[in-house]
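It is worth pausing here to work through a concrete case rather than discussing structure prediction in the abstract. The textbook approach is simple: state the sequence, then state the predicted structure, then interpret. We follow exactly that order.
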Amino acid sequence: YDVIVLGAGPAGSTCALLLARAGARVLVLERSRLPRDKPCGGGVTLRASAWAPLDVSSVVERTVYGARFSLALGPHFDRWHPLPLTYMTRRSRLDFFLASAAAEAGADLHDGEAAQALEADGAGMTVRSALDAYRAGVVVGADGANGLASRSLGARETYEEAVALEGNASVPDAVLEEWRELVALDLGGLAGGYGWVFPKGDHLNVGVGAWKYAASTLRPKLEALCRRYGLSPASLWGLRGHHLPLRRPDSPLARGPVLLVGDAAGLVDPLSGEGIHMAFLSGRLAAEAIVPYLDGRSPNLRPYVEAVERLIAPELELSRHLHEAFHFAPPPYVALLSRSEHFWRLFCRLIRGEVTYRGLVRMLGPMGPLLRFFGRVARRRREARVSSVLGRRPSSPTVPEGL
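Step two, the predicted structure:
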């Protein structure tokens, strides 16, 4: 093979599909049988869908136009936008759709076959599974932050982590209709995270996220969120926990012929916790760097690293500053969402992909650099506070048993 892609999530399948379209010989190894579900809220923002390798409308279950905000499970207020804000799907449907498209384009898809070892030699890489060994000139690690590729490059240890706990609620049709075009976002009640209610075709997805050091708070917070919206915590099904990897500036993106994309590269938006947008984009950037490398027009895969550092890393860094500034003092920002039409419109433009984080900071005028500065200060204070309590970096604590 020319390229072996580890993982058939949005990043891996995007890369595989684009490479196969370009004529490359591609193998995709996916540990699970497809279709399979993944712990994920399933929100596909408009900015994410713009980078998808094909139209994903066939797997969209709901289109969201409004948000129900609350501060630490207090009184809520609804905000609406005339244009779509985000799409709702299920990862089982989205991932199967993308992987099938990659296979139809010519990629060999081996689902139910996990990569177990990576071995480098002078001619490229050998990937070993329990069933066989495969050779290729390039390996794309799209198997998540805990996957083989991320561990092999030492990236996993560099990430700061958030964690999330989510489940699904079956509700009467009347309740489902109430949430048909609406999401709920509970802000300010979790350390570095938020609670959500997302509508799906025949149920609601309910979840909470926070910094990893606060993982023990997730279950009681999820139960409280359920009760806040009239849902029975005991009736939740498909309850699952998962990690959200957040890369640092020194986190590796590649080594030799091995590239990391999506969650494997820690490309998760710190402010929203969303990873599908960066999965689509990084998968595309990887394919764009690999094609000229395979045909001899590029001597190495450095253009991928440069593209991520140019297009993605600055956005993630600004998102991190805004995230820290918001969570240092949430009430004023929630009040702005409630009372300021201008602030709400900026929020919508960001979610819709009409403006980047860099563009948002510019549009905020003098407040933009102030938020960046405040975010850096808030982050240093948070890390110092956590370190003093735990005696270690904020990313070190383990997730409680059963999460």
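Step three, interpretation. The chain has three domains: 3-56+90-159+247-315, 62-89+160-244, 320-390. DSSP finds 13 helices and 19 strands in the chain.
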